[in-house]
Amino acid sequence: MGTVQDRLVDGLYGLGWAAVKKLPEPAAVALGRRIADFVWKKRGKGVLRLESNLARVVPDAGPERLRELSRAGMRSYMRYWMESFRLPTMDPERFSTDVEFEDEHLLREALASGRGVVVALPHLANWDLAGAWAIGHIGVPFTTVAERLKPETLYDRFVAYRESLGMEVLPHNGGVAFGTLARRLRSGGLVCLVADRDLSASGVEVDFFGSAARMPAGPALLAQQTGAVLLPATLHYGETPKMYGRIHPEVAVPKAGTRTEKTSVMTQAVADAFARGIAEHPEDWHMLQRLWLDDLEERSA
User: Fold this and answer.
1) pLDDT band at 301 (very low <50, low <70, confident <90, very high)
2) Which pLDDT belongs to residue 1?
3) Peptide bond into 241 cis (omega under 30)
4) 142 in Cβ contact with 167 (< 8 Å)
5) Residue 144's pLDDT is what?
6) Which of 89, 112, 211, 237 is the most buried (most CB within 10 A)?
7) In this structure, are residues 29 and 79 in contact, taking their beta carbons and an 8 Å threshold?
8) With b meaning 16 or more CB within 10 Å and e meaning fewer, what string describes 212-239?
């Protein structure tokens, strides 16, 4: 059954999905902005953590600039939710008109090679909308992994939502998910992974905006094990309803070194691509959790 709090959280998300998707788009946009501004003014833990993270991304920003960035960040984050609630009912043709990718040819060429493709993305703008674009515009279904949320009914809602868009969604449970992803890649398929925050104990340490962080090893390991093409991608919002993205050049498997050494080099290259996209559009990076190792150590101290 779950706790009362779990049922309340699930009920609120269910209400959002049911109600927001029925609103006219301008009304949904306005509602999202009002909610974002209300939450931002409350200065809760998530907002403060976002500002702390943004201070690393924009180190020369003073307090006033950071507050402006965090306000824009919360508006961007709430835009993600408003769009996500509405995505299953959107006209698929809009995925081609409302989403534009720079260097889209890199993805098309990689898919045409038959090697399989791993696209690694950070928490920028709307990665679900990017997935819908890949399915509707490129015409390729893909497999992804979702973090298990609490309550379990909420996780089930997210899986059903993403599957309604045409995605195959696997639970984040280590070896079982990795094996399935590897099989999809060996058959020439597409795998998309949000990969700027490690959810396991096996993350790779990288230099990220001048400090140590851990990012998932999965994208690099999958490319090594299956021969798939590893492509980082970054996103950012334009004026509603436009979203823009960039496919970055392939992160190749180094010719020399151990598997661990190769994974470290490749994951750092992915982190560098993420950093370029985040630095250009910091307000669209939805990182409201601790990420850098010294922040994590401070919490555990």
Assistant:
1) low
2) 44
3) yes
4) yes
5) 94
6) 237
7) yes
8) ebbbbbbbbbbbbebebbbbbbbbbbee
